[in-house]
Amino acid sequence: MAATGESPRSGLSSPEAKVGMRVEDLWDVMEPQLSPTEKLNACFESIPMVYLRCKSFEIMEWGKLVKKSYCSFIIEIKSDASLAEAVQMLAQHKILSAPVVDVDAPEDASWIDRYIGIVEFAGIVVWILHQSEPPSPRSPSSATAFAAAANGVNAGNGFLGPESAAATSGNFFEALTSSHLYKNTKVRDISGSFRWAPFLALQTSNSFLTMLLLLSKYKLKSLPVVDLGVGKIDNIITQSAVIHMLAECAGLQWFESWGTKKLSELGLPVMTPGRVIKVYEDEPVLQAFKLMRKKRIGGIPVVESGGSRAVGNISLRDIHFLLTTPEIYHDYRSITAKNFLAAARSYLEKHHEVSPILSGMITCKKDKTMKELIQLLDSETIHRIYVVDDDGSLEGVITLRDIISRLVHEPRGYFGDFFDGVLPLPQSSRV
């Protein structure tokens, strides 16, 4: 990362900094009457996604940054793989989700016929959670229920009280993950409904502005970039990758003019204390993951019982502990949010692994600059930061999406017919 005030032009530049320098070149020739925001919009609209084709990028693997090449990093899961096999593959490659390839698709199929969707840890955990809920007379058939659960359909009222924590323990998850159903249910069996069929993807001809808007305003955490020529995914771009790109642009004129503004000047945090979704430490950790899935958020603060002080943070990337290492809960009678954090931290320390869950909550004040915030998020490899006052009281939360949304805005009628062909979202489902 470039030091404060040092331009990436001064030495060997990362691929991310080269994108920033491309913006800088365009910034210098933009019409002077344009506002800074309009300039940024125009710059990013002028850079096509092909600019990043096969370039090295910093990819987040749970809590650790490793340099990979996009083109060699795309992990695909076959539609006839079992849930157990899918979990093993996701865990092996330390990724949270992967595109699912239809094994029955012809060799020359277009990308929209080649893939049936994306499978993720979160969806599988929701499926497992569904198995722990008692059936009701109005419950759908098992196959439909599995598909609905995997795609985030809310079962019952969607909430679990503290008393429900006693029903979940290490043995509970060991029994589920060793069951015949878990080992034999196929990935294609739980791909019941998607907002887009099979997913929303970019083409290499789309612009950076399109990508930034989809990752912010349209709340997508990652975006596949497809190569129409071969009908396959060429890149996968995440919110974390965009933040890393911005961090690499420190010192460039366009970045400094925006990044030196204080968070309060940019209207952050957007999410105020009363709107922050949280879970209490004595509630089952499943409640946290269920809320994240239902509310489509990536993390939740854990709050002390009977109080308002946050004692930790649980994110979607932590889900894998439930599926891959249920044995770490043997010493706990129930997997509450508090016990989950304790067991996960103990496991990581024992195995000398690095993860944001070890650091607890990362906080900042409103007078921090955007540049400082981006560099902190990038160095700590986290997806959100909690804003506190001088007394340490929670004032809000800032996510990667919030930051990207302050960088660009959607021009009127920008997307035109971009979403043509999108399948309607079933009334009872959410993704």
UniProtKB/TrEMBL annotation:
One Pfam family in the UniProt entry: CBS
Residues of the CBS domain: 70-136, 271-332, 354-415
Gene3D superfamilies: CBS-domain (3.10.580.10)
Taxonomy, superkingdom: Eukaryota
Record-linked SUPFAM superfamilies: CBS-domain pair (SSF54631)
The keyword Repeat appears for this protein: yes
CDD domains from the UniProt entry: CBS_pair_SF (cd02205)
UniProt keyword terms in alphabetical order: CBS domain, Repeat
Nuclease recorded as keyword: no
PANTHER family: AMP-ACTIVATED PROTEIN KINASE, GAMMA REGULATORY SUBUNIT (PTHR13780), CBS DOMAIN-CONTAINING PROTEIN (PTHR13780:SF36)
Protein name per UniProt: CBS domain-containing protein
Source organism: Carpinus fangiana
